[in-house]
Specification:
By secondary structure, the chain is of the alpha/beta class. The protein is built from 18 helices and 20 strands. Helix 9 crosses helix 10 and helix 12 runs antiparallel to helix 13.
């Protein structure tokens, strides 16, 4: 959605905007500002501040010999369109690649042995009876209890519920402990006992309300999707996508576009924000002072804060202590990705899947292992495989607290035990993401709504990022672009009222 700024009313007055943070969210916000102002002919003075020496945040692609290594996320989902649409606007659509159909399945650990996730299992609910009955993951009682989901009534209350409570209520404890916790933990690195279902997977609540039984709802939706896919034509994407040269290709294109329309200031930290009277005719009286670490003070008409909430809280403490406290109430978890390259001949397991998830009940020291070069082509040379092992998260914070050397040794031992990996790795890289994964605890949407109400009191201020209404790459882009659209709408309304 484009929010036009009516340049016929605004004349040539330059709109001064600061974006704080040059991760994916901040760069997407800056790019959106450029798009809107270019479409309307509105003069824009844009500055993007980034405390570190590089843009991109968690996204970082690196070449290690003939391996293509992602230190952070390695893909995004296509069912949320924001990432695909941004790639199209950045003329990167021809670089999008899909997963390899030959390995399109997942494994889960059961008593120390990797076994396939039953075909058709949709995160918390099965769509097919046969694969569940044949699966060694569940005991006979666990399978019976899962089948009894057809008879479980709807929950009467409408308040938020944890993922663990929801799954136990509908499918039983074994389904949660043996499969769902591991599958969802791989996405959110969270404890299912505290993870908000409304904030993360509201479609399952909608299924329960509409169909009562999730199994019935999933099977009906699967049949409907099959009919639609048979009728529809045109471009369709697989569930997971990435870019041929890695996700840093997206960051590089965004940086190039942002530098065309504004100024990217790397290695420039912002210490705090303050709302002031601009004192200039025709300008927003609620201007924003941005104070840098070197005590330099600069003034802008509007600010987009694209930081983790605890950093945003520090910037806003002097401006609004209540808002800062609300932002600090969103917790984060630390996760570590260990990337390693191996000879296929040194691995006993056939790696005939996209990866392996590991339930907490198995009491292992890694959360999951992604077979990255099985998912996407061009990630490892012939006869080699790229593995991504995940450590820490909310369930195992003590593992992430170990040294890089200790974590690398832990992963080496686990890969040997789980997959039969032997020999020396071509390389091992430990990539830390300290306090980087927001935790969507029960009641999260209420907390976010309260934050949004408080932000709305401050003209010219917007917050964006993965801590609010979605943790993935498309969610971050959507958050950024919505924040800019709101800023543009408010500025257009302000100018209209002045005139």
């Amino acid at each position: 959605m484009t929010i036009p700024l009516d340049d016929a009313k605004n004349g040539e007055r330059t709109w001064r905007v600061a974006v704080i943070g040059a991760g994916l969210t901040g760069l997407s916000a800056a790019h959106r500002l450029g798009e809107v102002c270019q479409q309307t002919g509105r003069p824009l003075e844009l500055e993007v501040f980034e405390a570190s020496g590089r843009a991109g945040g968690a996204i970082e692609t690196e070449r290690m010999g003939d391996y293509l290594v992602e230190r952070g996320p390695d893909s995004f989902i296509s069912s949320k369109p924001s990432a695909v649409e941004l790639c199209q606007r950045l003329e990167l659509e021809d670089q999008l690649i899909a997963t390899d159909d030959a390995y399109r399945r997942s494994l889960v650990l059961r008593r120390g042995r990797p076994v396939p996730v039953p075909e058709g299992f949709l995160l918390v609910s099965p769509a097919k009876v046969g694969p569940i009955l044949a699966s060694p993951i569940f005991s006979p009682w666990g399978k019976l209890r899962m089948g009894l989901e057809y008879l479980v009534p709807r929950r009467a209350a409408d308040d938020d519920e944890s993922l663990a409570s929801f799954v136990r209520r509908r499918f039983g404890r074994e389904t949660l402990d043996r499969l769902v916790q591991a599958l969802v933990g791989g996405i959110y690195t969270s404890d299912p006992e505290t993870l908000s279902l409304k904030a993360t997977m509201p479609r399952f609540l909608e299924m329960e309300r509409e169909h009562r039984s999730l199994i019935r709802a999933v099977r009906r939706q699967a049949a409907s999707s099959l009919q639609t896919s048979q009728k529809d034509s045109g471009a369709r994407y697989s569930m997971f996508l990435t870019l041929r040269g890695g996700l840093s290709s997206l960051i590089e294109r965004l940086v190039a576009r942002v530098e065309e329309i504004g100024r990217l200031r790397l290695g420039t930290a912002v210490s705090h924000l303050r709302k002031v009277e601009s004192g200039e005719p025709g300008r927003n009286n609620n201007a924003w002072q941005v104070t840098l670490d070197d005590k330099t003070v600069e003034t802008y008409d509007a600010v987009v804060v694209a930081l983790r909430t605890y950093h945003a809280a520090g910037l806003l403490l002097d401006c609004d202590a209540g808002l800062a406290e609300s932002l600090k109430n969103i917790d984060y978890a630390t996760s570590v990705v260990v990337l390693s390259g191996h000879r296929l001949a040194d691995i006993q397991h056939p790696l005939n899947a996209f990866g392996l998830v590991i339930p907490a009940i198995e009491k292992r020291r890694v959360l999951a292992v992604s077979f990255s070069s099985r998912k996407f082509p061009g990630r490892a040379p012939e006869g080699r495989v790229l593995l991504r092992s995940f450590v820490g998260g909310a369930m195992q914070p003590e593992e992430a607290a170990a040294s890089d050397e200790q974590i690398a040794e832990t992963v080496k031992g686990e890969l040997s035990s789980l997959l039969g990996v032997s020999g020396d790795a071509d390389f091992t890289v430990v990539s830390r993401h300290n306090q980087a994964m927001p935790q969507y605890a029960v009641g999260h949407l209420d907390r976010v709504a309260d934050i949004e109400r408080q932000v709305a009191k401050h003209g010219g201020l917007e917050l964006a990022g993965n801590a609010y209404r979605g943790v993935g790459i498309p969610d971050s882009i959507h958050s950024a672009e919505n924040a800019v659209d709101r800023l543009c709408a408010a500025e257009n309304q302000r100018v209209t009222e002045v005139l």
